[in-house]
Amino acid sequence: MGSPGEAQIRVWESVAEQFEAENDGWKVDLNFQDDDMYQTIGLPNLLNGRNAPDVYFEWVGNRLLQRDADGFVADLTPFIEDGPLTGVLDEGQYGAATVDGRVLMVPHIADVTNVLWYNTEILDAAGIQAPTTWDELLDACDALSADGVIPIASGNKDLWAAGNWLAHLVSRVVGHEEYDKALSGQADFSAPQWQDAFGYVEQLAEHKCVNESVNAIDDNEGAQLFFQGKAAMHAIGSWLVSWAIDEAPDLDFDFVNLPAMPAEADPDSVIGVVTGYVVNAESDDAKQEKAAEFLALLGSAENTQAFIEAEAVPVTATASDTIDERTIRLNSLLSESEVVISPPDTGYDLDVADAFYRSLAEVLGGRTTAQDALTQLQEQLAK
Questions:
Q1: Longest dimension (CA), the chain
Q2: pLDDT in tens, 2-30
Q3: Per-position DSSP letters for 256-277, written without gaps between them
Q4: Which of 56, 73, 313, 322 could tie 68 with a disulfide, CB 3.0–4.6 Å?
Q5: CB-CB contact of 244 with 227 (8 Å)
Q6: Phi-psi region of 7 (alpha: psi -120 to 50; beta: other; left: phi over 0)
């Protein structure tokens, strides 16, 4: 897997020790890689190498489907129906990881990957309510900019940070089905609603809603603008909660989902990901059985609590005093939504996602128009 951070690594090491203690003669090797490397070349190289992993981390969506098509995904259904994984998760929690009746992954973490976080004190001082509509958001941008405050901080140097936010925005306008068709290559971006959708991104630039450095700084630098009180809002995912508690413990902040767009197709959609662990179909039957036992141990009440204390909230977690109430509300937002949008870089082909993100970044940064960006996107994908 990609590195989950030192606190969670300690939990993984503990789970490995527990498993080895309960399974004489079996050893667990943990392989943590740089996140970007793992996501791009790391995992494919491992799977095609001589010592392929028996269990590996993956996202639901196009990536999981590709692993399945390549023959690296074991069907976990038998282990769930009558085996080590029976009762570990509620049946409904396997929905996103189920394809053609086969459970392909044990979900571990579900993240809302973008909401609009806001600094309560800054908005109160400016007499602004947390925006719940597009017009309210643009009005807030105008008022905050006039006061010398960055309305929305974003660090989009690596393209995904604002790209994720804007992908959700445009999906609201074109509808999740059109969004899915275009990003999966079943349709192009020539439909009139795409022009409308990118036009709203153009409005963000016109109203100076984001910092001028948006495409020059990374996600960490964007978050620091919010943590230091230089920006009133920040569009990012659910992991901001633990991050802010660590780096800005006195910050009074909350969130709203993406403000309602004019004439939008999916008014209550949420953008999010489900991640978890896949058992390699190339592993022998004995290892697959033990892998299922390991994943069952991972989801135990004791280890779930250990992950919570390490600032992760597994899908096996229930509400408790140790989970921040904002995290509980985010989990409810994701689980109760009828439309969950997949981020481009985890749900679709990475080359398509990169081109899509670049076109959005150009418009957000005020370097090109919505129409020109869409034309360039179409031309790039046609090559």
A1: 67
A2: 998 898 999 999 999 999 999 999 999 99
A3: EPSPBPTT-S-TT-EEEEEEEE
A4: 73
A5: yes
A6: alpha
